[in-house]
Write a structure and sequence with these properties.
The chain is α/β, with parallel strands linked by helices and 290 residues long. The chain is built from 8 helices and 21 strands. It is 24% helix and 35% strand.
Length: 290
C-alpha cells in the first residue's frame, strides 16, 4: 500500500496544483518511481489512498506501469488509519506500506526476506548503520528496534534512519487503530508492551519530498545518477540563446529569452523566460524559488 492521503502542506504551493505523489522527479512522478520499483520487485498491484486532489491522483495512477486501486478518504485517517481503511482491498497477510512522498534506493526483496526470517509486528526499512544515538531509530545487536522517537526499550548497538517503508504483519494489522499514526499509535504502544519491532538495513539512500528545496534536491540527484548535466523531455524546447545547467525541462516545456537557467525544474508544459536559477516552474506558471 502506498500512503498518499496527505495535503502536502510542506510542499505548497506546488501541491496547490498536484497531489504530492504526482510531482515529477526526472522522467516520472514520485509515485511513478515507486510503482516501477514495486513492479521490478515482483509486485502485481498496489493500493493507494487519497484525499487531496483525488481526481488528479486517479488520472495519474491510470498512467502507471503497475495496476492500482484508489481508496478515497473523505477525512484523512493518518498512516495507520489509512492502512486499516483499505483492509478489504489489501486482502490477508503481510503488507508492504510505502510513504507516497519518499523516494528510496532500497532492496525490497531483501526487506521481505528479513521480515519473513523472524516474527515481528513489523519490519522497517532503514539505512546502513549509523553511530549509536544517531538517526531516527536505534537497533540492538539482533536488529530489533530499541529506540524510536523519545522512547528506549533496550541496549542500542547502532543507529539508523527509517526511510518510510515497512512490512506490516497480520498481528500489526489487527492492532491498527481506525484513525492514527503507524509510529505513534501502533509501534510505540507495541514496544511498550514488549512486542518485537525489527529493522532491516536495505536502503542506500532516500529523499523525503517534504519542501520545495528537498524536491529540487531529489531532481538534481536523479540527474546525477544519470551522469547528465541537464535533461530535456520529449517535446521540450530550449532557446539557443539559453545555457542550461543542472536543470530538468519536462515534456512540452519551453524556455525562452537569453541567459543561464541553472538548478531549475520545469514541469510538463511549463513556460519560462531566462535567466532563472534555483526554482521550480509548474505547468500552470507558478515560479517557486528554492
Amino acid at each position: 500500500m502506498v500512503l498518499c492521503a496527505g495535503f502536502g502542506t510542506r510542499l505548497r504551493p506546488l501541491t496547490d496544483e498536484l497531489p504530492k505523489p504526482l510531482v515529477p522527479v526526472g522522467d516520472r512522478s514520485v509515485i511513478g518511481h515507486i510503482a516501477t520499483m514495486l513492479r521490478d520487485a515482483g509486485f502485481q498491484r498496489m493500493v493507494v489512498n487519497g484525499h487531496h486532489l483525488t481526481e488528479r491522483l486517479a488520472a495519474g495512477l491510470a498512467q502507471l506501469e503497475l495496476p492500482s486501486e484508489l481508496v478515497h478518504e473523505p477525512q484523512i485517517r493518518g498512516t495507520a488509519g489509512g492502512v486499516a481503511g483499505a483492509a478489504e482491498h489489501l486482502g490477508a497477510g503481510d503488507v508492504v506500506v510505502y510513504n507516497g512522498d519518499i523516494l528510496a534506493q532500497l532492496d525490497l526483496p531483501a526487506l521481505l526476506g528479513a521480515h519473513r526470517a523472524g516474527p515481528a509486528l513489523a519490519t522497517l526499512a532503514v539505512t546502513r548503520p549509523l553511530p549509536v544515538g544517531h538517526g531516527t531509530v536505534g537497533l540492538d545487536d539482533a536488529g530489533r528496534v530499541v529506540r524510536l522517537r523519545a522512547g528506549r526499550w533496550g541496549v542500542e548497538a547502532a543507529g539508523a534512519d527509517f526511510v518510510g517503508v515497512q512490512v506490516l504483519s497480520p498481528l500489526g494489522r489487527d492492532r491498527l487503530p481506525a484513525d492514527g499514526c503507524l509510529v505513534g499509535d501502533l509501534y510505540l504502544p507495541a514496544l511498550d508492551e514488549g512486542l518485537e519491532l525489527r529493522a532491516a538495513a536495505v536502503a542506500s539512500g532516500f529523499f523525503d519530498i517534504g519542501s520545495p528545496a528537498a524536491y529540487l534536491a531529489a531532481n538534481l540527484a536523479w540527474l546525477a545518477e544519470r551522469a547528465e548535466p541537464s535533461w530535456v523531455g520529449p517535446g521540450g524546447a530550449v532557446s539557443d540563446r539559453v545555457e542550461l545547467r543542472d536543470s530538468l525541462v519536462g515534456p512540452g516545456a519551453v524556455i525562452e529569452g537569453r541567459g543561464v537557467v541553472e538548478r531549475c525544474v520545469l514541469w510538463p508544459g511549463a513556460k519560462v523566460v531566462a535567466p532563472l536559477d534555483n526554482a521550480v516552474v509548474t505547468t500552470e506558471g507558478r515560479v517557486v524559488s528554492c
